Amino acid sequence: MLNEEKILEALEYALPVTLFDVTDSTNLRLKEMCRSGDTRVQLLCADHQTAGRGRLGRSFLSPEKTGVYMSLLLPLPKDDLPLTIRAAVAVCRAVEEVTGKHLLIKWVNDLFLNRKKVCGILAEGVEDMAVLGIGLNVKMPRGGFPGVPVAGALEAEEDREALIGRISFHVLKTLEEEKGSILSFYRERMLLTGKEITFMHSGQEKNARVVGVDDKGGLVVQTAQGMEILRTGEVSIGSSQVSAFE
Ligand code: BTN
Prior knowledge:
With 246 residues, this protein is α+β, with helices and mostly antiparallel strands.
């Protein structure tokens, strides 16, 4: 079971914290709490999720006690830089602070270490707030991540509570931070800049070279038809995400 005191010690802010041994999805639980009137900025975590949710309707494998599965109920950012971009930066900062490990960002907000995805982020709207869900693989589960060859783990020795506390701290801080400094950190950590990628456009696969991200966090790409800015969705490199980083 996660220890609330240790989380609060690392977090510094006095946030309400709810901990579960097991739940279906921390994002679902927090959305439900918000809809039933508990709109406080708060943190909800679990040791294990039975129906962890990923982006684009995917699931997120959340084995017992090997990862961080956390959701924050937050106000929306005051400017036009999406919460997901802020969250990617916040997790990189927190992981580096706690473990010394240097993560890279695959647009929009997948975080990689040694060519493996170790963290996924899912932001969802609820009422006029956002639920920010973060799944971070801390240790490799005994059976690995079946069917997800791109998944890896930090293999960090530090407590999950320290990671949860510092991630929450850095997320809250980025909500107050002006977007220029967040964007410059994000750009330094980007995996895709200069790479050839493919993406789907109106049901068709298109090729492009990545130029960077614009001031609203959109991916700027050069195609044969000219410059385009991608705002949502996902891009791939080569035939699989893994081959991208060899
Ligand atoms: C992705 O990689 O597609 C996003 C994964 C997000 C997973 C986290 S784990 C905590 C929170 N609860 C969920 O059900 N999903 C997010």
